[in-house]
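#struct-pred
JK: can someone run the complex with 2-oxoglutaric acid? inputs below
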Amino acid sequence: MERYLFDLNGFIVLQGALSAQEVEACNATLDPLTDCTPGEWRGHVHGHSFTGSHEGLNLQQIYEAGPAFAGLIDHPAWIDKVIYFLGTDKPGSFDALHGPCFIDENFVSIRRQGEAIGLHSGGHERVTRCQFRYHDGQFHCGQINILIALRDIGPGDGATMVIPGSHKSNLIHPESAAAQMSENATSVDGITGAVEVHLDAGDALLFVDAIMHGSAARTNPGERRIVVYRYGPSWGFFRHAYRPSSALLESLTSRQRQIVMPHEAQLMPGANAS
Ligand SMILES: O=C(O)CCC(=O)C(=O)O
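RT: done, structure tokens with the ligand placed:
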């Protein structure tokens, strides 16, 4: 049933993915971090904002915050499903060069009244990284997201919104282009076909990034707290354990450098990259 619903809709909800104790441990770890500001380091966790306007605070590299979050990396409630939908569960899969998956972003998002994220993604874009693909009896998705509620998310709480089935759409959503031009771009409220996904604390939303998604604006007081771990196939990382030397990097043009090493490690001051 999960396979069928994921294929049909582009998402499934894993109810009770985290126990009450796990949710409590995550929230207790977060409590001292919620006043972090974008650009600030708290240990190895970095305050961040997608656009710096209405999307609230992100705490990037949240798996560094402590065991409660490190335990989510391969949590038994979802890891086998993630690998299955990436299609890297088969022995010898060439998409599984460095193991079955790679997390390319992990963060907590904290939103307060008025904050939201606008509609984005969609099957019409055919973006390789986010793609939904099924071939010869196997899923081959480019990115599977696990979004976990750390507090109950109901009406007015700024729920994640999805357009079921839009991971397969061929046409751009007619309201999407218009929404980019108006203040509606800041949330998914009012978009035809979009539904709120209400979650209890500890529930997880598993979705392919190709689905059109975003969130409702939070109208209730208080704070929405979610965690997002994005999993993709591991092949995008270096094939072998070689790394370019700093002498080479320093000698390259900016275009060459971007191809060889797209970005420098952004680390807490004083920390060493491994
Ligand atoms: O914040 C949300 O509810 C949606 C998250 C989102 O857009 C994403 O993970 O890509």
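RT: quick notes.
The chain is about 20% helix and 20% strand.
The first helix runs from residue 2 to 9.
JK: thanks, will look after standup
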